[in-house]
Amino acid sequence: MTSASGSEPRFIGIDLSSPVLRVAIVNNDGRIEERREVRIDADQLLGQVAQVVSELRGVNSNIEAVGIAIPGLVNRQTDRVIASRDLPLAVRENLHSEFMKATGARVEIENDANAAAYGEYKVGAGRGSRDMFYITIGAGIGGAIILEGKLWTGASGFAGEFGHITIDTEGLECECGNTGCLETLASGPSIVRRANDRLYRDGTSSLSKLAINKNFTADDVAHEAKNGDDFSMMMIERTGKYIGTGVASVLNLLNIERVVLGGGVMDAGELILNPIIQEARRRAFQPCFEATQILAATLGADAASIGAAMLARDATA
Amino acid sequence: MTSASGSEPRFIGIDLSSPVLRVAIVNNDGRIEERREVRIDADQLLGQVAQVVSELRGVNSNIEAVGIAIPGLVNRQTDRVIASRDLPLAVRENLHSEFMKATGARVEIENDANAAAYGEYKVGAGRGSRDMFYITIGAGIGGAIILEGKLWTGASGFAGEFGHITIDTEGLECECGNTGCLETLASGPSIVRRANDRLYRDGTSSLSKLAINKNFTADDVAHEAKNGDDFSMMMIERTGKYIGTGVASVLNLLNIERVVLGGGVMDAGELILNPIIQEARRRAFQPCFEATQILAATLGADAASIGAAMLARDATA
């Protein structure tokens, strides 16, 4: 305990998974009390983290530890970062000890999807459940499993790869080398690809004017769907059905009591959540479907930083 | 402890999952010391079980408890049998207490796939692993999950339904109501259906003469494959690929250290195990594949009775 006596401990949560370093002081209950956002300069990452941690320690002297969510595979037994697609310059194997040295603090690192899952479990849509499956749908599709209050990361730390379950044996090739992964149909870029293919073939849509320049995003599809564009609504609905197919398999395999869905694609709200639930109901065993709650995440972009802070808190126990 | 002092306790394991009641005295290490097989008469099931338990108590006076593997969904919190397709006449909700009354023994009941998984985990191909996924491929495809030594049965006892993960969103209708379940392609009856369809279309095979009478079984396909019949070998290999597709999804989701495959279809041996492993390697994340061992079960038809006995043993702890 480095906190002043009589004061509640605080934790710093850091999310490295976007181009912006998201940093927050989080209290013992998982509430954010102070936040900073800094555009990441990959060559200066260690210095940036040290700087912001030092600054926040000036704001609150009860900081007990720092949690960092990493866009890569983290082996928490060894605290080694195995691989990272999104942060290639800065993330290396000994990142954990480098962060400890740079900040002078106790640091816990975790994969970003796992950290976000833990945040939702402790403070967000997972609260009150014992076991939870977390899904994040954005540029890629990730997942994480929490069983009896703890992250279940498997034999070598990689459990929860929901985006890479096969839902179509004869499907498209995936970046991972497999064919027919859920991610080839339901990630942000896959939605754009499917929408482009289909706009080219037929259909008029408010996306058409964007498509001429080939520069609309999955966010645009969600936005146009919310504005009532039929074509965009159909694209979002189909995406939901693909995700629901994967959710049904998870329900049948794990009979899990809660499924929480986050990530940018879920910004479409009920337009995507409803078809996910419908398809899961249609495909899963009835008792498995009835035993679960399928909910949208509630922490938004703060999930990973809050979760990282909570992991730093709970690692003391 | 009802056992005579100085003597090792023994357990009776009973498997109700086939037309034959398989019963064994199992010692503390999971070895079978004595066995009985009785053709099940569904109307007399309670009496048959009471009779054989009484008989085996005459053989060994150190019987401490009885474990029974049930072909149906068992909620172990309430010890209620929820549903059973295979034993409709005899299995009812309060089977557990009826068995206790009939035998005068402490009785533990468990789903048959879970019991078989536990047997393989303690005494068979799962031995030495911490976490294990068990798959049984026969008339249906079942599964079970063991995490850190314990059966993971999920929120309501139904986890492990490996046969009902979707591997083809547009696939055939399954008995469970879903479409494209693994079971529609790789169970024993599915192998027969696929073989019949294809024999009708083309191909000569040693199965053709059986097919004329439409009465070959998946066992026949495996047998002819072992005898070198090209067509049968192809059917078994494709079945292995479908199963391997499902295994890859399990590896990506659970990053589990061991996968054990049992059931009648696995009697084809390496002819089916090799394509399962190859397809899992091709489709799973490399670190997930490398962290696992995929093995054939070793206890054969004794898995469920041994596992039920081991569950009865470990419930005392």
Please, could you describe this protein's structure?
2 copies of one chain form a homodimer. With 317 residues, chain A is of the alpha/beta class. Chain A folds into 2 domains: 10-119 and 302-314, 2-Layer Sandwich (Nucleotidyltransferase, domain 5); 127-298, 2-Layer Sandwich (Nucleotidyltransferase, domain 5). Helices cover 38% and strands 21% of the residues of chain A. Chain A contains 11 helices and 12 strands. In chain A, the strands form 3 sheets. The first copy, chain A, has a 5-stranded mixed sheet with strand order 3-2-1-4-7. In chain A, strands 10-9-8-11-12 form a 5-stranded mixed sheet, with helices on one face. In chain A, helix 7 (218-226) packs across helix 8 and helix 8 (230-254) crosses helix 9 (270-283). The longest helix of chain A has 25 residues, at 230-254. Chain A is globular. The N and C termini of chain A lie close together (12 Å). At the A-B interface, strand 9, helix 8 and helix 10 of A face strand 9, helix 8 and helix 10 of B.
